[in-house]
Amino acid sequence: MDELPVIPIYSYVSVNLVKPYVRGFYPNAQDLHPLHAIWIDREARAGYLGWKSNP
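RE: above sequence
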């Protein structure tokens, strides 16, 4: 038994859908995302939505 290989039965998977104008959101091993570090880039958002200026 000491020589047998270890086979993982399952693994954790994380899926995050984040708009391209959201900044400060980075994937990590624990899938923890502190909200105080996440922000919206208003200029990038305006360009993404096709607005001429920020609303």
